[in-house]
Amino acid sequence: MPFTTGGQTISDRLTAAKHSLAGSQLGKTICKATTEEVMAPKKKHLDYLLHCTNEPNVSIPSMANLLIERTQNPNWTVVYKALITIHNIMCYGNERFSQYLASCNTTFNLTAFVDKSGGAGGYDMSTHVRRYAKYIGEKINTYRMCAFDFCKVKRGREDGLLRTMHTDKLLKTIPILQNQIDALLEFSVSSSELNNGVINCSFILLFRDLIRLFACYNDGIINVLEKYFDMNKKQCRDALDTYKSFLTRLDKVAEFLRVAESVGIDRGEIPDLTRAPASLLEALEAHLIHLEGGKAPPPSQQQAAQQQFAGGFGFSQPQPTLGDAERQRYIELEQERLRQFEDQKKTINSANPFANDVAAGPAPPTTQPDLLDMFQASAAPAAASAPIDATNPFGSFPAQNTFPATNGHGATPFGYPASHPDDLARMTAQMSLNQQGVPAGWNTTTAAVSSNPFGAAAAPPMYTAPMGMYQQQTYGAQPMWNPAMAPYGQQYAFGQPGQLPPQQQQTIQMVHQAMAAKNAAQAQQAQASSNDPFGL
């Protein structure tokens, strides 16, 4: 057992001190990330190395050679953590690191590695070190042959690399991807063997790689199946072998994911694997037999196979066929249901005393507004052509014509939109309170709500007009003077009290007419209520 101090062995501290004396911060960090402590490399050391890969003044060959040198250590912990550091940089660091490893012929030479430090569990962990080193070597070899990392390429239906690849190149690329997946699946462990931080860290990195690799593998298989019936005989034979090997690897991937779920990896990160039906494989084999001179598969079987993988393994069960008698019976049932619905609708309309009036009334013409003009006014003919209700005190005063717009946005002098149907009644209630000489400081909004027999919500307070005030002699109440406009009497012609533009005078006259119509309608309604024996 080596001597330790503060969790690190004397050998670790001597190696770090040697690099410190040489002035190599990079070498010191690599030594601290690959110590003999049975724990995963520290995050601060990995983050520093990832940052170094993006710095132009850091030598990538020096970094790679220092890590490869650490893999030749006789201690399994140092070798394992050096491989984890290399794997982490390949996944999350700059791609220059992977390019250098792929360009040089350096190999780890760990196929016969056995721990020589004599530590606890060294012999058992040596097996995992050899398997992990084999996968890292295969990952580097894949980058050397394809010039890209399968874990970083685009995936998906639209712009996925393997989903849009040509047939010849696709059939040559998938075997390379299969070799990398096989090397990863050889790292087979049980949940009981994941008993220390070092192997747990490597297992998480392998799990993430497997998810990405299998997604690319799935895209490639879907692309192969979509083009299967357009291939020649040799390509169909290779594609069929590829699909059979895919089904075999699917079971191994499911077993790896079960181990990942058992050790506590979030269930949301584990995909659900769905096997294709056996009929798909039978259709592929029948097509290949036909190309080799055998009996041709039935057209229905070929169409069913194409429909099964057209949506990307979204397989569905075949729909049952219906005869003419059953189809006619379903049509008659639908017609009977439609007739019952129409009868029920007529019954409801006959019980509604207002249904006939609504149905008899002409439909108002509708115009499609221009979506590009967001500030256009509503169509005037639509409001003018609507019939005037005698019981509506505001029926003869359309909202659009009552308050002519003062600007290009259709804003009224009172600040309310001209198209709001309740604004006129709200303003009328406010004006009637002003005519009655309400004392200053009294809450006019509360009084308006209390006089409302329907108990509506409180109306928003009136906005003061931009001109400054309204003529107090007309209303007999407190002037609505805006003190903020007092300093601007010289600039604005209507900024002083007692002045009112002709346009607002016309507006006030319209409001008085609306108020008189409202009072007449209320009196008529009160007289009708007194003559009603039911009190309705």
From TrEMBL:
<dbReference type="GO" id="GO:0030136">
    <property type="term" value="C:clathrin-coated vesicle"/>
</dbReference>
<keyword id="KW-0333">Golgi apparatus</keyword>
<dbReference type="InterPro" id="IPR014712">
    <property type="entry name" value="ANTH_dom_sf"/>
</dbReference>
<dbReference type="InterPro" id="IPR008942">
    <property type="entry name" value="ENTH_VHS"/>
</dbReference>
<comment type="similarity">
    <text>Belongs to the PICALM/SNAP91 family.</text>
</comment>
<dbReference type="GO" id="GO:0072583">
    <property type="term" value="P:clathrin-dependent endocytosis"/>
</dbReference>
<dbReference type="GO" id="GO:0048488">
    <property type="term" value="P:synaptic vesicle endocytosis"/>
</dbReference>
<dbReference type="InterPro" id="IPR013809">
    <property type="entry name" value="ENTH"/>
</dbReference>
<feature type="domain" description="ENTH">
    <location>
        <begin position="24"/>
        <end position="150"/>
    </location>
</feature>
<dbReference type="GO" id="GO:0048268">
    <property type="term" value="P:clathrin coat assembly"/>
</dbReference>
<keyword id="KW-0968">Cytoplasmic vesicle</keyword>
<dbReference type="GO" id="GO:0040011">
    <property type="term" value="P:locomotion"/>
</dbReference>
<comment type="subunit">
    <text>Binds clathrin and phosphatidylinositol 4,5-bisphosphate.</text>
</comment>
<dbReference type="InterPro" id="IPR045192">
    <property type="entry name" value="AP180-like"/>
</dbReference>
<dbReference type="Pfam" id="PF07651">
    <property type="entry name" value="ANTH"/>
</dbReference>
<keyword id="KW-0254">Endocytosis</keyword>
<dbReference type="GO" id="GO:0005905">
    <property type="term" value="C:clathrin-coated pit"/>
</dbReference>
<dbReference type="GO" id="GO:0098793">
    <property type="term" value="C:presynapse"/>
</dbReference>
<protein>
    <recommendedName>
        <fullName>ENTH domain-containing protein</fullName>
    </recommendedName>
</protein>
<dbReference type="GO" id="GO:0030276">
    <property type="term" value="F:clathrin binding"/>
</dbReference>
<keyword id="KW-0472">Membrane</keyword>
<dbReference type="GO" id="GO:0005545">
    <property type="term" value="F:1-phosphatidylinositol binding"/>
</dbReference>
<keyword id="KW-0168">Coated pit</keyword>
<dbReference type="GO" id="GO:0005794">
    <property type="term" value="C:Golgi apparatus"/>
</dbReference>
<dbReference type="InterPro" id="IPR011417">
    <property type="entry name" value="ANTH_dom"/>
</dbReference>
